[in-house]
Amino acid sequence: MAKHQAPRGMRDVLPPESDWWQWLVSRCREAAHRFGYREIRTPLVEHTEVFLKGVGEGTDIVEHEMYTFADRAGRSLSLRPEGTAGVVRAYVEHGMHTWPQPVKLYYVAEMFRYDRPQAGRYRQHTQFGAEVLGAAGPSADVDVLSLAVRTLQGLGLREVRVHLNSVGDARCRPGYLQAFRDYFQAYYDRLDEDSRRRLTTNPLRILDSKVEQTRQIARGAPRTLDYLCPDCRAHFDRVVRKLEVLGIAVEVDPLIVRGLDYYTRTAAEVHYPKLGAQSTLFGGGRYDGLAEVLGGPPTPGVGFGMGLERVLLVLEQEGLLPEVDASPRVFVCCEGEAWEDEALRVVDALRGAGLRAEGDLLDRSLRAQLRAASKAGARWAVLVGVPGTPAGEVILRDLRSGEQRVVRTEAVVGLVAREEEGGCARTGAGS
RNA sequence: GUGGCCGUAGCUCAAGUGGCAGAGCACCAGACUGUGGCUCUGGGGGUUGCGGGUUCGAGUCCCGUCGGCCACCCCA
Is nucleic acid strand B under 7 Å from A368's C-beta? Predict the structure, then answer.
């Protein structure tokens, strides 16, 4: 076994998986641009304070899951466990409230959480996320959520169902929480240990419990939707209706809550059940109080974060990963040292003409070079310096048919280029 | 952080109740076609994740540790 391994919960991405990543990320970017979102790139680390305030001190993420360390000057920094806090910090820091509103931003970024790893849950993972800042109305919720949904659909995922709930706002949430606590307090002896703990730390998450007895109790629990103030109620109804206008399947789900403190009103998730316990593809919602918490002007915001490792797992399960052809089109073989420079010039000229071309780097025999060319999937081989070939000429061999002809060295690039163009036109390459 | 299952070559996996670490694929070289694919021959590769213990003898049994997986927890 290797002496050194990647840190726990972190992984190497090798070809061809790296090809799939490039493809996936570009699809996300294209979708975001289509929706009018522009990229924001924030630091991988923030002052720990940003997450303490922005994510919430009582949350599991900041209590147990952050990679926190002191830099050489003694400042406490943390690897970002999620994307929104940093984006909102940047919004405030750069006075983006003076930009034309709303500000629509997206990111594709690595997140770090010190969790116990399993399939679909990594200590380093990648999120595609988007935020709308400065728009309080339901249209903004629908804009970001539809970006997430249409991105997934664009990847070929059919049944995307948005689970939707509202957790209220500063006006109605306290009253709800009171009723919620009162309800579970009455069943205290029958609650499991985790749920008792949550009653004080993160009450709403009791709704997510997997313990059967607790689930039964939870079925009778007060629901946020019944406690919404009129404004929150109207907001929620309009989000649902607009998603339906778009033909996006919505399931009102009172059990969707967010573990993060800054969420208000809309809470949304999309799951892919086949992934098992780590089935959330994206989660998102509204966070109207966050900018103020981070010292900025009151600014409404709504966004989502999508786990790309999980999306890739789903695409793999569904057979939706693209075929990526990384093979060279032309392989230049060289017989003998005397011709190495000539072969090098031919490879370079082919590349200059925009063709994917390779040459031998291992001083192999002609046979071995041809073998390598064939194995690499090259369509053409150019043979330089084969005995019997007239000076100034090379052999152009079609590796598919086995046909070959002797051509002038200066002409070979043009010949291959023409063949490739014709081939592309015939097969209608690209999709 | 809790509980459970697992760890043998680069990959997929063999090696009855403890008894000489193997195969296929992959990789490299050679043979046969002037020069690839097909076929054949050979080769390189392992401290059985790591450390300790039991035993005449451990891939196999025990303990610890690291890593992966499943569930909890949490969440993307």
Answer: yes
Third-level CATH fold of A17-172+228-317:
BirA Bifunctional Protein; domain 2 (3.30.930)
Q: Are A317 and A274 in contact (CB under 8 A)?
A: yes
CA dist., res. A167 & res. A264, Å (int): 6
Average pLDDT, chain A: 91
Is A330-425 assigned to CATH 3.40.50.800?
yes
Predicted model pTM: 0.92
Listed in sequence order, the residues at least 6 apart from A356 whose beta carbon sits closer than 8 Å to its beta carbon are: A327, A328, A329, A330
Domain with CATH 3.30.930.10 in chain A: 17-172+228-317
Nearest to A79 by CA among A123, A117, A118: A123
Strand B positions within 7 A of protein Cβ atoms: 1-3, 9-10, 27-37, 47, 49-50, 66-76
Pairing of strands A103-112, A38-39: parallel
* C1’ B32 / CA A395, Å: 23
Largest CA distance in chain A: 96
Q: What is the DSSP letter of A39?
A: E
Could you give the CA distance from residue A359 to residue A176 in angstroms, rounded to a whole number?
Answer: 70
**A426 phi/psi in degrees, rounded to 5:** -65, -45
ipTM of the complex: 0.89
Looking at chain A, which residues constitute the CATH 3.40.50.800 domain(s)?
330-425
pLDDT in tens, A165-221: 999 998 888 888 889 888 988 888 888 877 888 887 778 878 877 777 888 888 888
- What 3-state class would DSSP assign to A249? strand
* Residue A222: its H or E element: none
Rounded Cα gap, residues A259 and A252, in angstroms: 18
